[in-house]
Amino acid sequence: MYTTTNEDGILNNYAAEPKMYYAEYPAIWEQRKYVLQGLFATLIVTALVLVGFSIS
Questions:
Q1: Residue 13: CB partners within 8 Å, gap ≥ 6?
Q2: 34 within 8 A of 26, measured Cβ to Cβ
Q3: What are phi and psi of 16, to 5 degrees?
Q4: Taking the mean position of all CA atoms in its chain, how far away is CA 34?
Q5: pLDDT in tens, 7-34
Q6: What DSSP line would sit under 15-32, residue for residue?
């Protein structure tokens, strides 16, 4: 950790910063997985909204 001291003797600790890296574009199989996850999430939200409307 990187530590500094000001004129009053108070310590300031700074965390070590992680190395930066660029994100890679997702592969085609990852894109398909994201589409399936989105469809599944949409199905769950739609079902919850319909159940909410039918109960009230």
A1: 1, 2, 3
A2: yes
A3: -70, 130
A4: 14
A5: 888 888 887 788 999 999 999 999 999 9
A6: PPPPPP-PPPPPPHHHHH
Task: Find out whether 2 and 14 touch, Cβ atoms under 8 Å.
Answer: yes
Instruction: With beta carbons less than 8 A apart as the criterion, state whether 4 and 11 touch.
Output: yes
Q: How far is CA 34 from CA 17, 22, 27, 41, 53, in A?
A: 30, 20, 11, 10, 28
Give me the residue spans of the domains in the chain: 25-56
Indicate the pTM of the whole model.
Answer: 0.57
Instruction: Answer whether residue 1 shows pLDDT above 70.
Output: no
Distance separating alpha carbons of residues 10 and 18, to the nearest angstrom? 25
CA torsion through residues 21, 26, 27, 30, sign: positive
